[in-house]
Amino acid sequence: MRRASRLKGRAREAEIIAAVRDLLAGSRYDQFTLRNVAARVGIRMSHLQYYFATKGDLIRGLLASVAADYSAQTAQVLAQVPDTPTARFMSWIDFLLQDCWDPRTRHFFIQLWGLVESEDAYTGQLLQQFYATDISEILQLLRDLSPHLDARLLGQRAAIIAGLIEGMMLMVGSEPDDADTRKGLLAETRKQIFRIATEA
């Protein structure tokens, strides 16, 4: 009975987080309120607050969910490519760059940045932790690709690459989205990332 109750509770939490992700992917961050989330899920505010008592708790749950999804996607992408450092590194980079062109992904992250910036310092720390996980995943692949770089430089390069990819979300929205433009921009970006990753 308790196990069934726990499973039901986890399912409800996942439903709430999915509603938050959907809200941020299609609306402005100022629409992110507990009342709007409860309405989107179709539950009372008190029921929502049973799972996430505050807006900060909901943001923490959201970031944990997004981080877990990207970790799972990392495993899926890497399972489908040759087991060589270059193939593994570039396949993950290609996935992240393609993800930048997804309008909902781009809108979600831009609104997430605005949301976190509008909240307190605690949520800012949560976002830093989220990106620390992102950088760590790049760093693991980078170590195998460039064992000639020392630990300090590897850490710096991983942070630069993560920042470059995140910045592309802003750039691709301002570029004409035709096939030739996209292909050329992706090719040049991946070339420069590989150079940053491997240059002595």
What keywords describe this structure?
9 helices; Tetracycline Repressor, domain 2; mainly alpha
Helix content: over 70%
CATH topology: Tetracycline Repressor, domain 2
Mean pLDDT: 88
Which CATH-level-2 architecture? Answer: Orthogonal Bundle
Describe the global form: elongated
Commentary on this structure:
It is built from nine helices and no strands. It is mostly helical. It has a single domain, classed as Tetracycline Repressor, domain 2 (Orthogonal Bundle), CATH 1.10.357. The longest helix is centred in the N-terminal third of the chain and has 25 residues. The protein is elongated, with a radius of gyration of 19 Å.
Short description:
The chain is mainly alpha-helical and 200 residues long. 82% of the residues lie in helices and 0% in strands. It has a single domain (54-198), classed as Tetracycline Repressor, domain 2 (Orthogonal Bundle).
Topology (SSEs and partners):
Layout: H1 2-26, H2 34-41, H3 45-51, H4 55-79, H5 85-100, H6 103-118, H7 121-145, H8 151-172, H9 179-198
Helix pairs in contact: 1-2, 1-4, 1-6, 2-3, 4-7, 5-7, 5-8, 5-9, 7-8, 8-9
